[in-house]
Amino acid sequence: MCTILTESDFDQVESWIGTGPKTFNLLYSITRDGCDTSVFHQKCDNQGPTLTVLYNKEGSVYGGYTGLSLESGAGNRNDNSAFLYQLYYSGLNTPKKYSVKIGQAAICSAPHLGPLFGSNTAYDVLTFHSIVQKSSSGEYNLNGDMQTYFGRNYDTAGISSKEFNNGHIRVTELEVYAVKDVKRKTPALPTPWRKTAEFGTKMLGCLKEEVKGIQPPEGLDVPHFNILLLGPLGSGKSSFCNLVASLTPYTFGDTVSLQLYDTRGVAETDTLDLLQCNFILDGHVPDFYEMSPTHLLKCDDAEFRHQAALKNKIHCAVFVLDGLIVGDMSKSMLQKLLSYRDLLNRKGIPQAALITKIDKLCEQSAENISNTFLSPAVKDLVYNVADLLNLPRNSILPVKNYEEEMESDENINILALLAVRQILFFAEDYLENMKDKQSRSRGNANSGQAHSDVRGSDTA
C-alpha cells in the first residue's frame, strides 16, 4: 500500500465527513518533520478540523478525524462529528467508519501527547508521546496504545485492534491534514497509486542499502531467505532470476541474503503436482535438482532430504504472471495456481505475485518505466491480479525484465529492487514467526522438565 492518500481515498473521507467538498492540506508528517509532540503541536494546533492518517508495512491505512481545532492544553473534549476509520487492511481496500459514542470524549490534547482519540484515561487511539526515533527497519515503533481501551469511546462494531491495525503501532508514516470547506482542485499530474521516492540514482542507492540490510533473524541457522518462483510457461521466471542475479554483486555484497528457486513452468497439462510442490516447500528437494514429468522425486530416492531443517524450507513463494495475458488466463490454469496458493496458505507460507512485461501495457510505462506507479493500466492490472489470487494489493509487484536492452537501466533495477525488498519483508516476517514459535516451544519444554524434576524430588 502507498504511503500517501489517493484522490479516491480523499473522496471516501469527504463522504464520511458529510458536509460537502473538502480540501486536505498536509500539516505534519513524521518522515518529514520527525516524530516529536512539540513539532506536532507547533504545526497542527489551531488549524481547524484535522485528519490523522497512519500507515504500516503490512499495507494498512487507518486513523481518525475530528471537527475540532487541536489545542495543546484543552484536555478531554466532546465532538459528535469525530470518527475513527480504516481505508486499507493488509493492502486490501476496506473502507470503514467508526463514529464516536454519544456523550463520550472524542479527543484529548496535551503538550506531551501526539494525536489522541478518546479520553486521557481511556484512549481508543493514542498514537505517541514525547519523541520516537526511526528504527533501523525504517519504521517508527510508536509508544502509544491502540489496544487497551480500543472501542471504549468509539463504536468499533466489536472489531479487535488487530483487525484495525494488525495488532501493533509500528508505522512507516503518520500524517495530519487540515480539512477545509473548499472544493479540491483536479491535480495537474496524476496521483501515484503506489507512492515511492522519486526514481533516480539516489533512490537506487537507498534501495541497495536497505535490501542489503534485510537478513534472516539471528539464532535460526538460516543463511539466506529461500524464495520459490511459480508461474505459467513464458511468464518470465527465468528472466527475473537473471535480473536479480545481475543486481546481486553490487546490492548484496559478499553475503547474499536470498536464494531463488525456479520451477518448471506451469502448463495446462504437464505441470508440477502438489506432492512435488509440497516436497519443495518442506525442504526435501536438494538444491539444483531438476524435476521433469519423467523424473519426479520420491520419498525413497537417495537424493530425498529426509531431515529438512528450516534453512532448507521455502520462506516465501512468488507467483510470476505475464501482464499481457493474465487477463485471458484459462479457468484451468487459474485453478492450478489457486491450488498452489491453498497449499501455501495451509502451511502459513507468505506469498507475493510478480507481474512482468508491464512496459507493454501502456505508452506511459513504455516511454519511461519510472511511470509505472502513475499508469492506470498497471494499477488496474495489479488490482485484478490481487482479486484473482485473493492476495493483498501490496503483495502484487510490477516489474520489467531485461529483453532487448544492451546496458543496465536504472529504472528497471529500481523496480526490481522494490519487488525484492517487499518479498524479503514477507520472508523476514515468516522467519520471525518461526523464531517465536521455536522460543515458545523451548519454553514449554523447559517448563515441563522443571515440573518433572520437582515431581521427582517429591517422590524421592
From TrEMBL:
Higher taxonomy: Eukaryota, Metazoa, Spiralia, Lophotrochozoa, Mollusca
Region (Disordered): 437-460
Protein name per the record: IFI44-like protein
Gene3D superfamilies for this protein: P-loop containing nucleotide triphosphate hydrolases (3.40.50.300)
Organism for this UniProt entry: Mya arenaria (Soft-shell clam)
SUPFAM superfamilies in the cross-refs: P-loop containing nucleoside triphosphate hydrolases (SSF52540)
Positions with biased composition (Polar residues): 441-450
PROSITE patterns registered for this protein in UniProt: TLDC
Sequence similarity: Belongs to the IFI44 family.
InterPro entries registered for this protein in UniProt: P-loop_NTPase, TLDc_dom
Residue ranges occupied by any TLDc domain in the UniProt entry: 1-180
